[in-house]
Design goal:
Number of strands of chain A: 10
Distance between the termini of chain A: 61 Å
Structural class of chain B: mainly alpha
Oligomer: heterodimer
Number of helices of chain B: 17
Strand content of chain B: under 5%
Helix content of chain B: 55-70%
Order of helices and strands of chain A: HHEEEHHEEEEEEE
Structural class of chain A: alpha+beta
Chain lengths: 169, 420
């Protein structure tokens, strides 16, 4: 086999297959990509929420891009509890200071990082959230402490537009 | 195939058959030599064909009234139940038909496991069967999403999130599957499309499954190779047709019981609440036929490994013909395998029960032991057993044990001495 020199015809075959493969890939890509989020879905990128009525120790849940977002006004005890945890004790080490820039306000996606259920408020072994689907426990900073979830609940991009309004996204 | 040359009797038939040999095919199917000792466990192939056709016919008629839109799907299903003529009947047949389909397929699979039908030369039949089973699970899952109830929505969320366990590209794949940032209208419309497509893919694979079956012919309860046609076979029609037909009638009684007397017993009450992305039901459970795999998923404390274990539990079946090292097919002649077979049946039932219970405490512990045993059965017990087990001698034909008593050592010896 190896001592055979490629002929003119071999070159033509290889070139035809290569062009054919590129052509097929170019046709398949639009058929695959049409399933990705469309322009109208992407357009719903941000939501503004009025949080003036929220008192410490309470949570509201708002919908952002089809997913629940928890906005919790934390009590002093909860903040103290979240900040006293040593990083080595965490499955996914993150400082509470980085998760809640303004310690009183915790804004995070209310989506369990295991398989996407909505965890329940004020439940679980760490006084934070508990996911009823497969038993993941989160602390008062929304960090995973026990159970199958691999990461802490995600903090979305948000900012305070004024003292009473949070803009998510 | 062992077909003799076939010539249609009529002139028109001959003219047609020379151009398209459909009559030759029909003749092959009626005359097809079948082992004469097939028991009722062999009737589930026919029952499954009935199930597939029932699902396609009821599905087509439901699709004439259903609206695949997140705002209207739930109401359109209620519209089918209340307003459409016989809508309740068609929907209950379709919903319970899925359960009946799985009931039949599990019996069919476990029959194969008991009688070693997956072994050489029937590996391709078996592998096509496993692909059909995978497609059935995909179709059932997507169909369950369509009514857009709470279980639909959260089941879809949990199952699609399984893909997020894949390193690096997982999140991208999930967004691509959803067509958004959560399960929503784009997800519903594509699930409807695929739910419509898959049954026809299954139909095509069923043709291949039967085609591959007709090359070596049926396995049988004794599990020996037989000459075809011979004294050990009967023609498919009328013998097997009548037997399959009788079994199908019995099966339809069970089917009708669920449809008319307990149409919602296999479903979940939460699915009569419209989907709400803000509230997860307290206890998410899949349909009963997926529970053993769900238990395996939950018994592994790591997300990626849990998904890997669940998929492996299904895919391990595809390589079963090479994991089972025993040359003897039927468990009738494998005294040890027979016991391990029933332990496996119990193990899968236990897994199913644990899948329905909350994943904590003793339930979780039992689920973990049962998961470990499931893999132990296929990866250790079967390969070792085939090499170590002392099997009972096989009879020389199907007729022999019937005429000469039970298939045992003494009988085989007598036969040998006679030959000498």
């Amino acid at each position: 086999m190896s001592d055979k020199k490629p002929k003119r015809r071999d070159f033509l075959f290889t070139a035809s297959y290569a062009v054919g493969a590129v052509g097929a890939a170019a046709v398949v890509w639009p058929l695959v990509d049409q399933m990705n989020p469309d322009a109208s879905v992407k357009a719903l990128a941000s939501t503004e929420v009025d949080v003036s009525s929220l008192t410490p120790g309470n949570t509201i849940t708002v919908l952002w891009r089809g997913k629940p977002v928890f906005i919790r006004r934390r009590t002093q005890e909860e903040i103290a509890e979240a900040r006293s945890v040593k990083l080595e004790d965490l499955i996914h080490p993150e400082k509470d200071e980085d998760r809640a820039k303004n310690p009183e306000w915790l804004v995070m996606l209310g989506v369990c990082t295991h398989l996407g259920c909505v965890p329940l408020n004020d439940k679980g072994d760490y006084n934070g959230w508990f996911c009823p689907c497969h038993g993941s426990h989160y602390d008062t900073s929304g960090r995973i402490r026990k159970g199958p979830a691999p990461w802490n609940m995600e903090i979305p991009k948000y900012e305070f537009v004024n003292t009473n309004t949070i803009k998510i996204g | 195939m062992s077909d003799h040359e076939y010539t249609p009797k009529s002139k028109a038939g001959k003219w047609f058959n020379d151009r398209l040999p459909l009559l030759t095919l029909a003749n092959h199917l009626t005359d097809y030599p079948t082992p004469k000792n097939l028991n009722y466990w062999w009737t589930f192939g026919g029952i499954l064909t009935f199930c597939l056709i029932t699902q396609i016919v009821t599905g087509l008629t439901l699709a004439m009234h259903y609206i695949a839109h997140a705002d209207m799907a739930f109401e359109s299903v209620e519209h089918i139940m209340r307003d459409v003529n016989y809508g309740w009947l068609i929907r209950y047949i379709h919903a319970n038909g899925a359960s009946m389909f799985f009931l039949a397929v599990y019996i069919h699979i476990f029959r194969s496991l008991f009688y070693g039908s997956y072994k050489s030369p029937r590996e391709i039949i078996w592998i096509i069967g496993i692909i059909i089973y995978l497609l059935m699970m995909a179709a059932a899952f997507m169909g369950y999403v369509l009514p857009w109830g709470q279980m639909s929505f959260w089941g879809a969320t949990v199952i699609t999130n399984l893909f997020s366990a894949i390193p690096l590209v997982g999140e991208g794949i999930v967004t691509w599957l959803w067509g958004g940032y959560s399960v929503d209208n784009p997800t519903l419309t594509r699930f409807f499309t695929l739910h419509y497509l898959i049954p026809f893919l299954i139909l095509g694979l069923v043709v291949l499954h039967i085609w591959a079956l007709h090359v070596p012919g049926n396995n049988n309860p004794v599990g020996i190779d037989i000459k075809k046609p011979s004294k050990d076979t009967v023609p498919f029609h009328p013998y097997i047709v009548i037997k399959d037909g009788f079994a199908l009638l019995m099966f339809m009684i069970v089917f009708a019981f669920f449809v008319f007397y307990a149409p919602n017993i296999l479903g979940h009450a939460d699915n009569y609440i419209e989907a709400n992305p803000l509230v997860t039901p307290a206890h998410i459970v899949p349909e009963w036929y997926l529970l053993p795999f769900y238990a395996i998923l939950r018994s592994v404390p790591d997300k990626l490994l849990g998904v890997v274990a669940m998929l492996s539990a299904i895919l391990i079946l595809a390589v079963l013909p090479w994991l089972d090292t025993s040359k003897i097919r039927s468990a009738v002649f494998r005294p040890l395998y027979k016991q391990f077979y029933w332990i496996l049946v119990a193990d899968v039932l236990i897994l199913g029960y644990m899948g329905a219970m909350p994943a904590e405490g003793l339930y979780l512990l039992i689920a973990r032991v049962a998961t470990a045993y499931y893999f132990l059965h296929f990866l250790v017990i079967l390969p070792v057993l085939g090499l170590k087990e002392r099997t009972i001698p096989l009879p020389l034909s199907i007729t022999e044990p019937v005429l000469g008593g039970s298939p045992n050592m003494a009988m085989a010896k007598k036969k040998e001495s006679k030959l000498e």
